Amino acid sequence: MSDKKAILSPLPGVFYRKPSPELPDYAKEGDVIKAGDVVGLIEVMKNFYEIKAEEDVLIEQFVVENETIVDAGQELVLVKSQAS
Question: Per-residue confidence at 15, pLDDT binned at 50, 70, 90?
Answer without folding.
Answer: very high
